[in-house]
Design goal:
Radius of gyration: 27 Å
Number of helices: 11
Number of strands: 16
Strand content: 15-25%
Distance between the termini: 97 Å
Strand order of the largest sheet: 3-8-6-7
């Protein structure tokens, strides 16, 4: 009887196994033909992922942002102005954590334009040298990058793994621990623990492959960490606001990578994280400036995390961030004010005022409040007394927090040779309504950080 039951169970298992659907497993070793045609990429995807490259062991890359980049020397003077402005505000020590490009990770990329490691490393180190030359602290964060296990970066995403964030934090702490930079900053005992293998990568390049080819590779996972101070925090302490601030991108803002906490652990000191995802090079600086009014103290050290493909020297953002650091024209005497209405493509003169005739464009800041919190960009034309004019656009660094306000320099000193300002036209505006005009209330004031 017992044998009969066992045979029935055995038969049942056999039937169950044979009924299980069978799926073929194919290892992807190359991309589909569509991935080689630029026209198949959306506009956003083309700049970030074309040409898509599938390398050995499932590593992927694409686009040009992680190839050789150099800061434009002429732009560095505007970044230097920003540095001087921050120093005047009381921030003496700013460490730029320029994250090394994932394309130089050892033996990960061998095809396409990513195989010349030394050229990529030299370009990265040249960026560090130029940042040093205008007053920022840096160090070579590519040191030890290739020894990180299992890897510094995810195979198919632009972001680092927690392991890459950890070794970066340790390298930064090693740099800041030299000399007396950390003296006077309260120390605390901080511990970090692994709490599971449940971090998933966002797999940017994998998603690009899926859109182009209809298939993708398995999602990558990583260890999740938790960091806690070993002492209770005194909520009534006057030193509750940390003396170290972290400014950064999604690399610093995303809890999955745990970078801010690794930094706390490596420094054994508290760090206040202002980083935001999607804000580019300067979105988190805006976050800091907006929060600064609530804080009575200025951080002694700022760690400014930037991906290797960033360009913090671009005047397109600096012309906004420099005046925004001083709240535009809100606390300055206005040279003139104006009000106007416009449509999306409604070119019109918004200012022709003899109060401006004594000023060069670099001496002036415009501060415009619109009636649409979803307004994102405007295009302007400046007329000079010489008869010359030039056009420029202002794309808000972080439209979500700008609330429809546009603050910017009319120009930098490169335009001084054109003479004094004669008039300003608004050429176009991007905002939410398709039918209602956009209302503008504006001020013009002097630029106190013209350089």
């Amino acid at each position: 009887m017992i044998r009969y039951i066992v045979l029935l169970v055995s038969c049942s298992l056999s039937l169950s196994i044979s009924a299980t659907p069978q799926y073929p497993i194919t290892m992807i070793t190359s991309l589909c033909e569509a991935a080689a045609v630029k026209e198949n990429y959306s506009d956003d995807l083309a700049s970030a992922a074309f040409p898509l490259v599938l390398d050995s062991d499932g590593w992927m890359n694409g686009g040009s942002r992680e190839l050789s980049h150099e800061f434009i020397q002429s732009d560095l003077k505007d970044l230097k102005r920003f540095r001087k402005m921050l120093k005047k505000e009381g921030i003496d020590d700013i460490y730029i954590a320029l994250v090394p490009p994932r394309t130089i990770e050892k033996d990960k990329f061998k095809h396409g334009n990513f195989n010349n490691k030394q050229e990529l490393i030299n370009a990265y180190r040249n960026q560090l040298t130029k940042l040093n030359s205008i007053g920022f602290m840096t160090s070579d964060l590519s040191q030890g990058m290739s020894s990180v296990e299992p890897a510094f970066y995810f195979k198919r995403d632009i972001h680092w793994r927690p392991e890459g964030a950890k070794v970066t934090a340790e390298n930064i702490a090693n740099k800041l621990s030299k000399g007396d930079l950390l003296e006077g900053i309260p120390a605390q005992t901080v511990s970090t623990y692994a709490i599971g293998m449940n971090v998933k990568s966002s797999s940017f390049f994998d998603q690009a492959m899926y859109e182009l080819c209809g298939y993708k590779l398995p999602t990558e996972h990583a260890v999740r960490y938790e960091t806690t101070p070993d002492v209770e925090i005194d909520l009534l302490s006057e030193s509750l606001i940390p003396d170290i601030a972290l400014i950064g991108t999604s690399y610093s803002a995303n809890d999955n990578y745990h970078f801010d906490n690794f930094l706390k652990h490596a420094l054994q000191r508290d760090v206040l994280n202002y980083a935001i995802a999607g804000g580019g090079e300067y979105g988190s600086w805006l976050n800091y400036f907006q929060a600064r009014g609530d804080n009575a103290t200025t951080p002694k050290i700022v760690v400014w995390e930037l991906p290797s493909y960033s360009n913090p020297a671009s005047y397109k953002d600096l012309r906004q961030i420099i005046p925004l650091a001083n709240n535009g024209c809100e606390e300055s005497e206005s040279i003139t004010t104006f009000s106007s209405k416009t449509t999306h493509r409604g070119k019109k003169e918004i200012i022709f005022d003899d109060a401006l005739f004594d000023f060069k464009a670099s001496e002036l800041i415009m501060d415009i409040q619109t009636n649409d919190p979803l307004a994102t960009s405007m295009e302007f034309r400046v007329w000079f007394e010489s008869g010359f004019n030039y056009d420029f656009s202002i794309d808000l660094i972080d439209p979500a927090t700008a609330d429809g306000r546009f603050v910017f320099e009319l120009a930098n000193k490169d335009w001084d040779y054109r003479g004094k300002v004669l008039a300003i036209d608004l050429l176009s505006a991007s905002y939410s309504s398709e039918t209602s005009p956009l209302t503008l209330q504006g001020k013009i004031c002097r630029n106190s950080f013209r350089g």
